[in-house]
Amino acid sequence: MRPVSMERVEQTRGEILDIIKSAELTHEQKVTCLANKADSLMEVLDLPEGLDELLNVPGDVKCICDLSEGHAPLRPRYITPDYGKLMKEGCKYLNLEAPRDLFEALNTLLIFYKHVPSVTNYPVYLGQLDDLLEPFIDTVDENTAAKLIKMFLLNVDRTVLDSFAHADIGPKPSKTAHYIFEAEKVLEDAVPNLSLKYEEGVSTDEYLKEAVECALTCAKPSFANHKMFTGELTENYVIASCYNGLPLGGGSYTLCRLILGNIAKKASSIDDFKNNKLPYVMDIMARYMDARIKFEVEESGFFENNFLAQEGFISRDKFSAMFGLVGLADAVNILFEKEGKEGRYGHNDAANQLGVEIMEIINDFNNKHTNPYCEVTGGHFLLHAQVGLAEDQNITPGTRIPIGEEPEELIDQLNVLSKFHKYFPSGTGDIFPIDLTVHRNPEYVMDIIKGAFAKDLRYMSFYSSDSDVIRVTGYLVKRSEMEKLDAGHAVIQDTTALGLGASRNGHILERKVR
Amino acid sequence: MQGIVTKIIPFSSVDGPGNRTAIFLQGCNLDCKYCHNPETRKRCINCGECVKNCPAGALSMENDQVHFDPTKCVSCDTCIKTCPHDSTPKASPMTAEAVFDIVKKQMPFIRGITVSGGECMLQPEFIRELFILAKDQGLGTLIDSNGTVPFGNYPELLEVTDGVMLDIKAFYDDEHKFVTGGSNREILENATYLGENGKLYEVRCVIAPDLYDCEKSVKATGEFLLPLYKHHPFRIKIIAYRPMGVRAEYSDMRVPTQDELSGYKDMLSEMGYEEIIII
């Protein structure tokens, strides 16, 4: 452990006092922030040379971002427990027997969630709810089942205080999913985030329609291309956090992101970007991720001592890591301007082609870099199109077309997206606010989903232009809660603050309505 | 052959079921007071008035014809607003093949196409050519028509048509003439013909309380259509008059309340209709 200066300690103490006195943070949020401040004084990672000037610099020149994971990771960033094992066997550590009816099944899950850590200190994966609950759904009558599921979801929203908590359903229809849709339409809550794994032929049209109608009411579920994900990650994958495809029973050690626009600013030409600046930053980021993973696996003790690992709800060899990026559009536009070329990302074939070439370089790099602890994904990280942070300014999420620059016609936007979604097994997605009139024609959205998945789009989210629950970048917030926070009141969920930041800096309320 | 095409909307959620590419043809033989796109009524006579007014330089006269350059257009609609002739310089002659090349870009995101207008049945042969191309690619085909052209005269068109969305703008002929300038005798005969042949996909009633007795008309329409509905069900759309796009002299009429619209819906569902949509 390397020493730190007293000056840094004093500065951190000042920040700690600010947190303690904050009027806008709840008690839970303060505790989390205090822990992060303590962690920020740690210097234990074996950092690659050159990282500091790419990571610890102002936002407009920063090239690598580690998304506030801290200096001494005490647990993997994202954990995806095998809740199926819990349903079958119970849990020794929590002294829970295997549930026998719906009451016990839901209670067991709610207890277990309290003990699943992550970077947010709340679980980012809540399980494949239809598979978990369907065996118990007929142990009570229909009204009771509907009421229990609704109370369960209400409980999750009010106790898992972070909308990165993600539950999955699909691809087959189920009574459980039906009760979830019915409840969510009434609750209109931000938590849990919800994905429907959709596959044409396996998921029925009635099921998809019900899901779309639900999404147009409360912005969930989102739709995941099941065929695509199973092709890359096998049937044992989950959608967690924003839209992250990850192996079940493991998760992701870490997620860092390249800020491509800022890397492009440093390049003198397209060639310089492709051959020098980008490879240099990728190499340092990959080695930084290696160092984080090494500490988690070899030194933190998490995999030896946490009950999740001890009892086999997770296993170390099912973890991978996410090699993220933001601002492909920014990089392309900056490089085009530098070379005096006409055209912008999303609108011009040559600009889009440069985007593809950049993605090929990143993909090749990732396929060559190996990490000994990512066995589950062939020794490689998984590429991830990161959705952005609340404080991001002039940074476009992942490979999206910037808000305000979306092509006039949705078809043109979809055709651009279809070039990029395939690169990101650990997640990418696009968001479409939908005009109110579509409430009377959910088949319109269904047709777009089916067409998109046939064209290798991976993940899509829709919300009605007038709904209270809206999708910020990958997670959900309530507009009404953002207004409360904006007026200076504490609000229950961590993610409301992120949404408010994103609406100020990321223009998320100005997306083109379709 | 060529059709006169006003515009093509790549993704439409309001021209039939699911996502469809909607093709609007120029020219109409009715003169509905509440028409919300009156610029589609007549064909351009190349008077050149719009060329003088276009602020973007997208219009020019070439060989006494108005020429439209879509790349310069800023969609301000000045041409439409200043046209003295209920037309638009943006409509242009296109072959069915050329239209279908544009349709194809939307596959596989669309389930079908809808031809609308204007009154598209003034160009039936063009629609047939377009629908043959669409059917060949597995796309659905719907016609949106005012029903004044007898479908019975075009059996070959109906062979490649999944269904027709038909307007019945007033049931009683005197009221229909007042609202649209034309008789509805042919329209009701068309409804019968299409209904009996299983080609009636949707019937629309536009509710404009200032123009005619809507309640009486909706009731009579419902009763008239019921035997056809029992033979082959279709959906009914109750469309509220809205002032958007309507010519100035008719743009301040009363918009029906939600309660009125729901009342008509309830009346029709009591008769036995199942799929009734209020727009």
Record keyword descriptors for this entry.
heterodimer, A: 514 residues, alpha/beta, six-stranded mixed sheet, five-stranded mixed sheet, 15 strands, 14% strand, globular, B: 279 residues, TIM Barrel, Alpha-Beta Plaits, 2 domains, nine-stranded mixed sheet, 9 helices, 32% helix
The overall strand count of chain A is 15
Largest sheet of chain A: 6 strands, mixed
Question: Between the first and last Cα atoms of chain A, what is the distance in angstroms?
Answer: 54 Å
Percentage of residues in DSSP E strands of chain B: 15-25%
The CATH topology of the largest domain in chain B, please? Answer: TIM Barrel
- Write the CATH architecture name of the largest domain in chain B: Alpha-Beta Barrel
> What composes the largest sheet of chain B?
9 strands, mixed
What would the average pLDDT of chain B be, to the nearest integer? 95
Question: In terms of structural class, how would the helical and strand content of chain A be classed?
Answer: alpha/beta
Q: Give the end-to-end Cα distance of chain B, rounded to a whole number of Å.
A: 35 Å
Principal-axes shape call of chain A = globular
Cα-atom radius of gyration of chain A: 22 Å
Structural category of chain B: alpha/beta
Give the count of structural domains of chain B.
Answer: 2
User: Outline of chain B, from the CA principal axes?
Assistant: globular
Instruction: Give the proportion of residues in helices of chain B.
Output: 25-40%
Unreliable stretches of chain A (pLDDT < 50, length at least 5) are none
Assembly type of the chains comes to: heterodimer
Question: Strands, helices and their partners?
Answer:
The complex is a heterodimer of chains A (514) and B (279).
Chain A: H1 6-21, H2 27-39, H3 52-55, E1 64-65, E2 78-80, H4 83-89, H5 102-113, E3 125-128, H6 129-133, H7 142-159, E4 166-169, H8 175-187, E5 193-198, H9 205-218, E6 222-225, H10 226-233, E7 237-240, E8 244-247, E9 250-259, H11 260-266, H12 270-299, H13 302-305, H14 307-310, E10 319-326, H15 328-338, H16 349-368, E11 382-385, H17 410-417, E12 430-434, H18 442-454, E13 459-464, E14 469-471, E15 476-478, H19 479-486, H20 494-505
Chain B: E1 2-12, E2 20-25, H1 49-53, E3 59-62, E4 65-68, H2 78-82, E5 92-95, H3 96-104, E6 112-117, H4 124-136, E7 140-145, H5 155-159, E8 163-167, H6 173-180, H7 185-196, E9 200-207, H8 214-231, E10 235-240, H9 258-271, E11 276-278
